[in-house]
From TrEMBL, chains A, B:
Domain Rhodanese as annotated: residue spans: 483-567
Record keywords: FAD, Flavoprotein, Oxidoreductase, Redox-active center
Family: Belongs to the class-III pyridine nucleotide-disulfide oxidoreductase family.
Cofactor(s) the record lists: FAD
Name of the protein this chain belongs to: FAD-dependent oxidoreductase
Repressor keyword on record: no
Pfam families assigned to the protein according to its UniProt record, in alphabetical order: Pyr_redox_2 (PF07992), Pyr_redox_dim (PF02852), Rhodanese (PF00581)
InterPro entries: FAD-bd_OxRdtase (IPR050260), FAD/NAD-bd_sf (IPR036188), FAD/NAD-binding_dom (IPR023753), FAD/NAD-linked_Rdtase_dimer_sf (IPR016156), Pyr_nucl-diS_OxRdtase_dimer (IPR004099), Rhodanese-like_dom (IPR001763), Rhodanese-like_dom_sf (IPR036873)
SMART domains: RHOD
Keyword hit for Oxidoreductase: yes
Length: 567, 567
């Protein structure tokens, strides 16, 4: 009889427990959770705060009782594993309800402790109106604070997934919101110019978005005391009416009624490190591809571990639910004698930001630059489905690839419709090892309500292949502000578009459909930098120019990419 | 200077013309179209009739003038190419406006004539109230008939894409509709049991759906004559008030005000065949992978050609817009000295049927049986996104694969949300040559509004891999009605579900969460056929049974698959 102990009862741990039982009726399985809840819908918390998910109980996917009934798993909530004796293969467990301690032996131990919110050591940060959001009690505290204090203004620090989702939740509740992000963009999985679309959306909804600014100090200015022992908080954290004065590193000050710290998470490795298990250079538990730690009897999964980046092969920390679930399943397989290997993490991710979705897979440009990997990029802005059918929205799409081999490095997309689909397609293509040339041949679903005969992805593949074959000489948005005297800008849109949307200073305007007649207005001794709205007409003009002996380049992604790059 | 003639100015022809010009400024390009319109939105026609696309001009994507201005292509509408002299590399063209004829020589000729609606030789079918729908004049005639005759009842013959879309259009216009299909299902790209979901939706909307019935005769019973020469119809086809009496092959009769024939299309091969070009066994123009016909100076693309089925390698006729567009682009490349190869057709397709989408890629079960290819299948019914987030809908998903190699044969999906996405993912995975085991590792976008940590596709891959590894012994919906005395049915749902949804006659009911306690109620000498709602709890119970030494099988896709299989 194999005895398996599992530390942590959410995504990875719960998946492992269920899979282990399906594989073996005789295994003894005990799952320890220091909190009060197992298998809760972590990712749903902000949506319950914002009111999209009305019923709190929907977030509680399993209970200790349901786990016992279905999977015969002994679930021990409020039981914290405090130590591992690897020699004797036992753990020390502290019952948090009565403070007692006991030991439990194991054949295999699975660590799925997750990650904890990072709270930077900012003066005054420890106050009753500042919260982070990771679990059900965190959520309950935030809801209690909102219910009791009726805040008029909230501030969110951090523009990642949780930060953006909390910003939207507050906005839905009618609370004026400030979002502060230290970097020059939100959603760091995408590159700066793609985040520009998100910034525009956030500002349009009336959010006070401040980029490139950090919180330096917090001052709690209490008003009336409103005790909230119901929420199970320590006295220091009881809800108090009052406000916070925030000092930012640009000298600005800000008064707010509620502060959410969402600057990131850090792997929970204390238990693993104290047991002498190898911890990786990024601070996550090291595992091999079988999800086995440096001790072969101990496995680890989820937000606490480092996995291999699918593109670079480098270690990475990717605290996402999908990988955690699959790793848990795999660890159970391997503990019970199978041999399954985890095949790297692409970091495929998506976030809803008001009416937009922003998503990515693989590596972004910042990472490629950091790793010193040569790359090329294309931008396409195309309709989510046939433009003549109602409801089509622009998909703004970026693809990064190796200009030599055509290998896909990554993809990013932003828009109001069909974003998840395009990034899913790219995630599959990348995992399968397809090249950008092969993407030309993709045969995707098409009917007017769902797609286009030439999908966004096909189009991006055409552009990328044109570049690889030398049929297109690209110029990118970030080069436009550094043109030389040997280059001239040619805007091939219609005059009305220049007027309504804007244009690049100094551009000559010849609409593409007049170019053949007016081509002699252009100089042959300069490089002509062509652009249009999104790059399509620009390419038609570019081809005409080079086929007529001109030197030319086409602005990939057109004016739209340039325009939002700094939004 | 290369001179390229193109026959047909819609998807394939128009794509080829544009691409050819981008590649060569000097090529002479003439595009002949016997109709009045080039590059129109074929796929949008039913949606304009139904009113979703209000503005008719949105369907006209390009005009001869716009083609000339942008691409310097000489577009000749109402000019029909009537003959090819391959020896002298010339075509004969008839100007349909004045009846004159002329010749035009070519270096390369591209045939993109499309396909024409099949009108079976049914007595009385040639009458003024019977229409097919392929182009703008067809659409205009149908709209005119509706406007003038104000039909109260319409009948559609054929349950393919056009038939289903016209059914929906009539329904939107408040016209009672009968849909008649000779086969026992609509949407033949999917298998019968998946079409069941569509049948249920169609009937729920009040459509009179008749399956397995054919139209045998039509009798036109004129009422008042309402001339409609404006619509450019020959006198015989002028709109007349009156009704049609339809006789069906089951002896039933039906009176209707308007009849749409949508039983399929046939490649337009007359020109090619008369020129002695090779025509394939399915009746489409034969081409090699370069889209070259048996005459190296003549290329052919689109609905008129046979392509290789991606899975079986057999010739196939796939009249879809995506392949036509890509083939046109490729043919232009090859005419101008490149070497691009078309890489087979998966037949990826999708259709909106009221609130449902139904989609597929690759081969279906019927085709695999016909080809004698061994396969296994799985069914999964899972939420389109996290169940706890509002708006989640069930994705009903079928995957066909090789149980030896894990190769993906095809996939089908039906539901109200996320159908296009799942079939796109499968289309990419199949094209990339992934196995069903590899699909387990797919890392798809997940946030509660968009997906699940374990996506439908991951789940289907888990089930398929369990079968391949022998961790699951499947039984399928179509075997349930043929159980032997050595098998017993075990329903592991909760009693309320049996009551509300229905159950299989003769099943023993032990809810999965009670199975461990009550397992001794089951016999060890019989095979236990386990089922639940969708197969998930069934698998938990199945594993418990086999791990306890019982013989068992799990109904893949559960009661839901069985229930809709005959709908």
């Amino acid at each position: 009889m194999t005895k398996i102990l599992i530390v942590g009862g959410v995504a990875g741990g719960a998946s492992a427990a269920a899979r282990a039982r399906r594989l073996s009726e005789s295994a003894q399985i005990i799952m320890f959770e220091r909190g009060n809840f197992v298998s809760f819908a972590n990712c749903g918390l902000p949506y319950h705060i914002g009111g999209d998910i009305k019923d709190r109980s929907k977030l509680l996917l399993q209970t200790p009782d349901s786990f016992l009934a279905r999977f015969n798993v002994d679930v021990r909530v409020m039981n914290e594993v405090t130590g591992i004796d690897r020699q004797n293969k036992t753990v020390t467990v502290k019952n948090l309800l009565d403070g007692s301690e006991y030991n439990e032996n194991y054949d295999f131990l699975l660590l799925s402790p997750g990650a904890a919110p990072v709270i930077p050591p900012i003066p005054g940060i420890d106050n009753p109106l500042t919260h982070s959001l990771r679990n059900i009690p965190d959520m309950d505290r935030i809801i209690d604070t909102i219910r009791m204090n009726k805040p008029e203004h909230a501030t969110v620090i951090g523009g990642g997934f949780i930060g953006l989702e909390m910003m939207e939740a507050f906005h839905q509740l009618g609370i004026k919101t400030t979002l502060i992000e230290m970097a020059n963009q939100v959603m760091t999985p995408v590159d700066r110019e793609m985040a520009g679309f998100v910034h525009a959306e956030i500002r349009e909804k009336g959010i006070d978005l401040r980029l490139g600014v950090a919180l330096e100090a917090v001052e709690f200015m209490p008003n009336v005391s409103v005790a909230s022992q119901d929420a199970g908080e320590p006295v220091a954290h009881q809800h108090l009416e009052g406000e916070l004065k925030l000092s930012l590193n640009n000298g600005e000050q800000l008064t707010t009624d509620l502060l959410i710290m969402a600057v990131g998470v850090r792997p929970e490795t204390t238990l693993a490190a104290e047991a002498g298990l190898k911890v990786g250079e990024l601070g996550g538990i090291w595992t091999n591809a079988q999800m086995q730690t440096s001790d072969p009897s101990i496995f680890a999964v989820g937000d606490a571990v480092e996995t291999q980046n699918f593109v670079t092969g480098q270690p990475s920390l990717v605290p996402l639910a999908g990988p955690a679930n699959r790793q848990g399943r795999m660890a159970a397989d391997n503990m019970l004698g199978r041999s399954e290997t985890y095949q790297g993490t692409q970091g495929t991710a998506i976030c809803k930001v008001f009416d937009l979705a922003v998503a990515s897979t693989g590596t972004n440009e910042k990472q490629l630059q950091r790793e010193g990997i040569g790359y090329e990029k294309v931008f396409v802005h195309a309709a989510s489905h046939a433009g003549y059918y109602p409801g089509a929205e622009i998909v703004s799409f970026k693809m990064l690839f190796d200009p030599q081999s055509g290998k896909i490095f990554g993809a990013q997309a932003v828009g109001r419709d069909g974003i998840d689909k395009r990034i899913d397609v790219m995630a599959v293509a990348q995992r399968a090892g397809m090249t950008v040339e092969q993407l030309q041949h993709l045969e995707l679903t098409y009917a007017p309500p769902y797609g286009s005969a030439k999908d966004v992805i096909n189009q991006a593949a055409f552009v990328a292949s044109n570049i690889i074959k030398g049929d297109a000489t690209p110029i990118h948005f970030d080069e436009i502000d550094h043109l030389t005297d040997d280059q001239i800008l040619l805007d091939v849109r219609n005059p009305g578009e220049l007027e309504n949307i804007g244009y690049l200073e100094g551009a000559v305007n010849i609409p593409v459909d007049q170019l053949r007649q007016r081509i002699n207005e252009l100089p042959k001794d300069k490089e002509i930098v062509v652009y249009c709205a999104v790059g399509l007409r620009g390419n038609v003009a570019y081809r005409q120019l080079v086929n007529n002996g001109f030197k030319a380049r086409n602005l990939i992604g057109g004016y739209r990419t340039y325009q939002f790059a700094n939004a």
